[in-house]
Amino acid sequence: MYQQNSTTPKELFGVLAAGAIVLLVVHTLGRFVYTPLLPYLIGDGQLTAPEGAAIATWNYFGYLVGAMLAIRWHRVSHIRILLPAFLVVHVLTTIFVTQTDNLTAISTARWLNGVANGVVFVQAPALILEWLVLRNRSSMSGLVYIGVGLGLLLSSGLVTGTADWLEGAERWWPVALASIPLAIWGAYRLMKLEMPDQEPDKNGKSTTNTPLIDRASIPLFLSYAGAGLGYILPMTFLPLLAKLELDAEHWLLDGAWLIVALSTIPAAWVWNRLGSKMGDIPALKLNFLIQLVGVVAAVVLPGALGILLCAALVGGTFLGTVLLTQRIGRALHPHQGPRLSAAMVALYGFTQMVGPWLTKQWLDAGGSLVSAFGIGVGALVFGLIFVFFVPRPAAWHARTIQHD
């Protein structure tokens, strides 16, 4: 059996850093940079709020498509081709949006950028998780998501730091230029990983897949769906909400996204450690509760306090939801690996696409943005309920053995 029980701290750091870098590129310089950019693009007259929501929906639809592609092409040999290819797609589509004000062109480019995000966001952590499992280091898998927290801080700095001397489409240039060297280094490092194309079992044969959908995974999938819809509204529209509710010179106009970024940086480490100490399922329940309080705050406490609490609590939890759910899923179905990760991200992507679409319908019908955040509250309650129906992996496998 292909097994390598030990590896050096330097090698572990290098692999986790490379994964963190590529997630930073596609998920923050690709996706989430749009959140602090949106109020500026609306202020410049390039977009209206409903158009901004529509573009976000196209981006999230692309993310869903990318995740579904990753379900189909989930083997290590596929990842070695697709991951660097879609990092190139990210760079090209980001450069493209610096050159146009056409709504259809922007939407198309953001859709393609979302596809790249979906593929890489599935494949990079899945590849690294499998690499860590072979070295008995799976408990470190959540640390790869630190890249998202650092990327949120970088995206905030790139947008606000250049806000006074860029306008409209050219506001995308700092992100495009930053992406190029980071994508090259991250892809180069990950492509050097020594990995079998498919892990063999103890008899030397390729492992057979357990069912992807069963009584153990269904509540986990439903919980993850609630999480995706619940967190995406503040992560897309919080700076815009700040602009609508606060004075023109209020520090939270730019500060809200900075608070999200700062809260996110330690989040992967904190939730990775909490999951290891108290168990991934209890940690996930706590994670949902804290995130729920954050989105409720934006609804019931209009103004600076609600925005501040929402930014801090959602920023500090959403990565924990991702890493804990992915780890629980793999523990329930250890032979599914990247395919399970891709299926969960596809579901997450679908609910994230629905969020901005529902918001656009609500705004077009005359609803307020703050009341639209109520959709997120309901979604997180839904997700939290289903966490209680997810079996502990050890108990689930013991039951399966007994039935056999």
User: What average pLDDT do the residues reach?
Assistant: 88
Question: What's the quaternary structure here?
Answer: single chain
Q: Rg from C-alpha positions?
A: 20 Å
Please provide the ordered H/E string of secondary-structure elements.
Answer: HHHHHHHHHHHHHHHH
What's the count of strands? 0
What is the count of helical runs? Answer: 16
Could you tell me the strand content as a percent range?
under 5%
Keywords: Membrane, Transmembrane, Transmembrane helix
Transmembrane segments: 12-34, 54-74, 81-99, 111-134, 143-166, 172-191, 212-232, 252-271, 283-300, 306-325, 337-358, 370-390
Protein name: YbfB/YjiJ family MFS transporter
Pfam families: MFS_4
Short characterization:
It is found in: Membrane. The chain is mainly alpha-helical and 404 residues long.
Describe this protein's structure.
Keywords: Membrane, Transmembrane, Transmembrane helix. It is a multi-pass membrane protein. The chain is globular and about 55 Å long. About 2% of the residues have low confidence. It is built from 16 helices and no strands. The protein is mainly alpha-helical. The longest helix is centred in the first third of the chain and has 31 residues. Helix 4 packs antiparallel against helix 7 and helix 8 packs antiparallel against helix 9. Helices cover 75% and strands 0% of the residues.
List the helices and strands and how they pair.
Elements: H1 9-32, H2 34-43, H3 49-72, H4 76-96, H5 103-133, H6 146-161, H7 173-191, H8 217-245, H9 252-264, H10 267-278, H11 280-300, H12 304-315, H13 318-332, H14 338-364, H15 369-387, H16 393-403
